[in-house]
Amino acid sequence: MAAEHFGFNFDRFMLTDQIHQYSEEIFQRTLQDRVHLHQHPELSFKEFETQKYVWQRLDEIGISKKQKVATTGIVALIEGKNPSAKTIALRADMDALPIQEANKVDYCSRNIGVMHACGHDVHTSSLLGVATLLQKMRNEFEGTIKLIFQPGEEKLPGGASLMIKEGALENPKPEAMFGQHVMPLIECGKVGFRSGVYMASTDEIYVTVKGKGGHGATPHLNIDPVLITSHIVIALQQIVSRNSNPIMPSVLSFGKVIANGATNVIPDTVYMEGTFRTLDEKWRMDAHQKMMQMAEAVAKGMGGSCEFNIVKGYPALINNPELTARAKKYAQEFMGKENVVDLDIWMAAEDFAFYSQQSSACFYRLGTRNEKRGITSTVHTPTFDIDENALKTGVGLMTYLTLRELQEK
Q: Of 139, 82, 15, 2, which Cα lies nearest the Cα of 400?
C-alpha cells in the first residue's frame, strides 16, 4: 500500500480515493474473516475460539501490543508517530446468539443452535480490516489507535462494562471512540447517524405472583394468581401511559408468562419475565419504584403476594453531539451526502452505552440491506444475513473517520 503518499496533513480527497482502493484490495481477506467467524459463532462470554482467531489475525497484521481483557476480550494498540498526541478507540463485539440458523448458504453456522444473527461477525471482521489499513499507515499519522474486541454484548452485565472495569479505556485513555453496527433497514452502501440520545436503556423484570391453587370449579376457595397476574400486567402498562412524560418514549413488555395449571387446575404460582426500556435515567429509576409498588399493591389487594425483581441493564446510549456532527461530515466526505442518512430513536439497547458514559463516543449504523438479493431479514432472526459489500463500507468508513478525527485538535 502506498501510504507514503500521505503525511499527517493529508489531502482528504486523495485519502478518500486511497482508502476506497485499500478497502477493495483487502476485501477478500475481510470476507474470509467474516465467513470464518460466521461459521464458528460462540455465545456471550464463551468466545474462546473467536478470541484465538482474532489474536492470530492481529499477529498476522503485525500488531504486537495487545492483551487479553475480561477473559475473552482483546485490547490492542496501533501507535503512529508521536503516540501521545491523541488516542481514538474503535470497538467491535464478538458474541453470537442462541438461534438456529435457517439460511441455506455455504458459510452457514456450523455450531448447532448458535448464530451470528446480530452481525457481530461483520463488526469483528470489519475492525480487523480497519486494523490492517491503519497498521500499514501508522507512519503517516500522529496518535494511537486502540482496538477493542469485546465479548458479551448480548448478555447482562454486558461485556463493555467488564472491559471498562478491567481498564480497557485506560493507558491510554481515548479522547474519542467509534462503534458501528449493522442495520438491515438501511441499504448496503449507506450509513446512518444520530446525535444525542439514540438507544434505550434496558432492564430485565422477573415477577413471581403467589396465591392459593385449587380446583378450577371452586374459585371461591382459591386465590387465583393467574387473575392477579393479569391485573398486574394491565396495571403496569398504566405506569407507562399515565406516569411517564408523553414525549419521553418508554416500553414495557412481558414476553414470558408461566402458569403451570390445567384446564381445571388453578396453580399456586405464576411466573413472568419482561423488559423495561426508556431514554431518561431519572424516569428509569422512578419507574422502577412505581412498578414494584403497583405490582405488590395489586397482589396484596387481591389476597396474594408478589415478588418483583428488576435487574438493571444497559443505560441509554448517548452519542456525543460534537463528535457525531464531525463523524457525519466525515462520512459525507467519504461516501457522498446521498449515502448518509439520519437515524430515528431506536428502543433496542446496546452496551456501547457504557463507553458513551466514559468517553466522547459515536455509535453509527452500517447499511446491509439488498432487496434485489432478498437480503432483508432483521437482526435476531434465523434468516438474518448481509450484502457482503457492506464490509467494504465498514472497513473504509471507520478507517477514514479515525484518520480525520486524529486531525481534529
A: 15
Q: Give Cα separations from 93 to 26, 55, 115, 288, 323 (angstroms).
A: 21, 14, 14, 29, 21
Distance CA 103, CA 230 (A): 38
Q: Which of 33, 93, 95, 101 is catalytic?
A: 95
pTM attached to this predicted model: 0.93
Q: In what order do the strands lie in the sheet with 203-210?
A: 250-258, 269-278, 203-210, 305-312
Contact call for residues 40 and 110 (beta carbons, < 8 A): yes
Q: Is 95 a catalytic residue?
A: yes
Which residue ranges form the domains of the chain, and what is each CATH number?
3-199+316-407 (3.40.630.10), 203-312 (3.30.70.360)
* Tens digits of residue pLDDT in 80-116: 999 999 999 999 999 999 999 999 999 999 999 999 9
Q: Tens of pLDDT along 33-90?
A: 999 999 999 999 999 999 999 999 999 999 999 999 999 999 999 999 999 999 999 9
State the catalytic residue, choosing from 93, 101, 140, 153: 153
Q: Is residue 195 within 8 Å of 107, Cβ to Cβ?
A: no
380 pLDDT more than 50: yes
